[in-house]
């Protein structure tokens, strides 16, 4: 019989050192890769406009805004950043089911324009389905702006989000002469900044037949998880921009997901206790002179994802999706449509607007 060789402490330390060194090297390589490939958009970027429909003609137009939740935030899920535990949808089939359901919801309307937020182009969380081609494919004029691009989001540790390529999209029945991505302020420090959204405005210019004015459409999805300073700075950039366009003589409509409750709506729905996501607050004094908010005062447009949806009285709800109108636009009708958050964590908001002469 041979005697068993004893492993020396020195060898154990060497093995441990190799293991630790390999882990450190992998972490360094990972962060190096993320740094080299970090999404760093310019302050202003010209965007490609797909399609080329006829110029707009008329005295009214209508529009719908909806945060699609990348077709992954249906009624049966929660999300870890809102106080829940969920991360990614359970399957590709579920995402496709949600896309079909969202399209069915959007088919309730036939507006001149759509503002869509959280539209994935090539993301792990939506199983790499190109949602930019899936949503309302019947609208040939389309503009897309990236606002969340990262080759791998390592959060949360045990169930990572993975690759994300996502953005906001504007659809139109009418000609868009040009479109631009305008970056919004980001105050997130390194290294967290590399894995977070780089939010923006998607500005689309719609020529009006027999007029020297343009209808300027501003689609956005404002900050949700950073500090109040970022929210304030982003809001100021939006307000300054829409005022500058109105001062040029244009009609201006801005909107989407504000991630803030509209004036008078902060306490409109049941308050749920707990450590969950809280929406900020909008006030009328944020607006340039003569501008006005447009929103539904009766129907919630968003649910907090701390738990799956059960009812309108048991979940934390907010009204955070809507619009801003320049003084030369008049609200004719607006309504949020309650879909009980079946396919996404937001409800669509429909609005009809009239051009007015000043």
Please state the structural category.
alpha+beta
Overall tally of domains: 1
Radius of gyration: 23 Å
The mean pLDDT is 94
> Helix and strand string, N-terminal first?
HEEHEHEEEEEHEEEEEEEEE
Helix count equals: 4
Largest sheet: 7 strands, mixed
CATH superfamily: Endonuclease/exonuclease/phosphatase
CATH topology grouping: Deoxyribonuclease I, Chain A
Name the helicity range: 10-25%
Topology:
Layout (H helix, E strand, L loop, with lengths): L8 H28 L7 E3 L13 E8 L24 H15 L6 E8 L10 H4 L6 E13 L8 E11 L5 E6 L16 E8 L6 E8 L6 H20 L3 E7 L2 E2 L18 E2 L10 E3 L7 E2 L13 E2 L2 E5 L3 E8 L12 E7 L3
Parallel strand pairs: 2-3, 8-9, 10-11
Antiparallel strand pairs: 1-6, 2-17, 3-5, 4-5, 6-7, 7-8, 9-15, 12-15, 13-14, 16-17
């Amino acid at each position: 019989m041979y005697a068993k060789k004893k492993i020396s402490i020195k060898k154990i330390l060497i093995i441990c050192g190799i293991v630790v060194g390999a882990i450190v090297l992998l972490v360094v390589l990972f962060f190096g890769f993320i740094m080299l490939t970090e999404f760093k958009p310019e302050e202003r970027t010209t965007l490609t406009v797909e399609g080329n429909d006829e110029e707009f003609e008329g005295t009214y137009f209508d529009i719908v805004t909806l945060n699609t939740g990348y077709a992954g935030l249906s009624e049966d899920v929660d999300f870890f950043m809102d106080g829940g535990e969920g991360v990614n949808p359970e399957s590709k089939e579920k995402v496709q089911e949600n896309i079909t359901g969202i399209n069915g919801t959007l088919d309730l309307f036939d507006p001149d324009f759509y503002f869509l937020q959280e539209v994935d182009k090539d993301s792990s969380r939506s199983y790499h389905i190109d949602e930019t081609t899936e949503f309302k494919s019947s609208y040939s004029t389309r503009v897309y702006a990236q606002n969340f691009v990262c080759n791998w989001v390592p959060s949360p540790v045990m169930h990572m989000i993975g690759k994300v390529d996502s953005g906001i999209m504007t659809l139109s029945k009418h000609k868009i002469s040009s479109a631009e991505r305008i970056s919004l302020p980001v105050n997130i420090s390194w290294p967290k900044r590399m894995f977070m959204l780089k939010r923006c405005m998607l500005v689309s210019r719609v020529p009006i037949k027999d007029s020297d004015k343009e209808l300027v459409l501003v689609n956005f999805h404002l900050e949700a998880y950073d500090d109040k300073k970022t929210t304030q700075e982003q809001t100021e950039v939006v307000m300054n921009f829409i005022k500058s366009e109105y001062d040029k003589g244009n009609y201006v409509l801005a909107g989407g997901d504000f991630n803030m409750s509209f004036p008078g709506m902060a306490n409109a729905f049941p308050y749920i206790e707990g450590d969950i996501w809280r929406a900020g607050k909008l006030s009328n004094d944020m607006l340039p002179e003569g501008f006005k908010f447009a929103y539904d005062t009766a129907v919630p447009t968003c649910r907090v994802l701390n738990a799956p949806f059960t009812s309108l009285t048991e979940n934390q709800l907010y009204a955070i999706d809507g619009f801003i109108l320049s003084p030369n636009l008049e609200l004719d009708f607006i309504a949020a449509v309650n879909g009980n958050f079946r396919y996404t964590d937001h409800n669509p908001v429909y609005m009809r607007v009239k051009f007015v002469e000043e």
